[in-house]
Amino acid sequence: MADVLSQNEIDALLSALSTGEMDAEELKKEESEKRIRNYDFKRALRFSKDQIRGLTRIHENFARYLTTYFSAQLRTFVQIGVASVDQLPYEEFIRSVPTMTFLNIFEANPLEGRILMEINPNIAYAMLDRVMGGRGAGMNKIENLTEIETKIMTQLFVHTLDSFKEAWSPTIELDPFMLDIEVNPQFLQMVSANETVVVISLNITVGEVTGMINICLPHVVIEPIIPKLSLHTWMQKKQKSRPPEEILFIESNLRNAELPVRVELGFSDMTINEFLDLDIGDCIELKQKISSPMVLMVEDTPKFLVQPGKVNRKMAVQIIDSLKEENEQW
């Protein structure tokens, strides 16, 4: 994205042009000349902007599912959202991870290869403290977790894979499963150092503690499904059609469903004193004209215009017209 000039910079540029310090023709000439930009093959961009947007949408859903899951498990305020989605070399990602952190390594069949979820030590311990009955205070003690604490954290994050599966389900049916949990990223070598990975950074707040969750998706892992990440593919994706027998079953149940139906004879206004003085045999003058049709209501929604009558000595109505949506304002 191009840099945006501040108002002071714009004023300085206009002043330089007006005083002759800068020549507008030279600026136009420089603009028309072919520009050369250095390209770093170690930071090869393997994903298009459209595919990055697709990954962003998927992990926005993942963040919502995680918010619901952690809120239920930790019984406290949890807020998670996508902070950024970047593609960079794997080596650069590993260097940005703290020396001691909480790393979940998992696979997601049918994709081949490992995926990494890194949880900031401060937020990881806040979750652990909350699960064990504490107030959810943040403290970095990942390097000396006991076996019991490690087991608790493992069980907590294993179930996050269900949310991961659900978030990816519109694109591909995945079967993720946990492989291992590591605390030192230097001992972890998932792909080659120069391999391009997509890092999805999630902002997470647990109570009063904030931190980050980073999801590392190597290019070689999601390469088979990259075409499915574009918006064009999502828009063209057809919904699964229901089998005919299921449609018939739904229709038969709907036909037997009971609906309340009533007809309004009309309405009238009166004072409270007039209402209290009503007695058997009194007549109430309605604002509905005899020649005007009445309205038949289905589930309190006006649907038909009807006229009163009798069938076999019973009061009945005859439908004379249906109400259109724009006229359903009775």
UniProtKB/TrEMBL annotation:
Keyword Cell membrane: yes
Topology class, membrane: Peripheral membrane protein
Domain Flagellar motor switch protein FliN-like C-terminal: 253-321
UniProt keyword terms in alphabetical order: Bacterial flagellum, Cell membrane, Cell projection, Chemotaxis, Cilium, Flagellar rotation, Flagellum, Membrane
Pfam families according to UniProt: FliM, FliMN_C
Similarity field: Belongs to the FliM family.
Protein name: Flagellar motor switch protein FliM
Lineage: Bacteria, Bacillati, Bacillota, Bacilli, Bacillales
Recorded name of the encoding gene: fliM
